[in-house]
Specification:
Order of helices and strands: HHHHH
Radius of gyration: 18 Å
Number of helices: 5
Helix content: 55-70%
Distance between the termini: 41 Å
Structural class: mainly alpha
Shape: globular
């Protein structure tokens, strides 16, 4: 990379400057099963109920991360908006005709 950071060529160079995404990609390259296996509790409920629980959990996490000025952690806020985006993308994909 131009800034002198060395990285294995198997990682896309744009991940290096992205910071957190590069770190996540390195972790997921040899991920622990806790990061890749679907927990059994997630398969025992309807998708709408699952999202309700996930939104509630992330909201509580955001509120718990507030600092002395009452600002929540930006990464947790990003998690909340990413969850919303994921839900809406999956809804759109689910409505698409199958490619089979």
């Amino acid at each position: 990379a131009e800034d002198g950071i060395r990285y294995p060529e198997k990682f896309h160079p744009e991940l290096v400057v992205a910071g957190f995404q590069w770190e996540l990609a390195k972790v997921l390259e040899h991920a622990h099963p806790v990061a890749t296996e679907i927990p059994s509790w997630m398969t025992r409920m309807e998708i709408s109920e699952l999202y309700e629980h996930l939104y509630r959990m992330v909201t509580w996490l955001y509120l718990a991360s507030r600092d002395s000025t009452e600002n929540g952690n930006f990464l947790v806020l990003h998690l909340l908006t990413s969850l919303w985006g994921l839900e809406h993308v999956l809804r759109a994909v689910d409505k698409e005709p199958s490619l089979k």
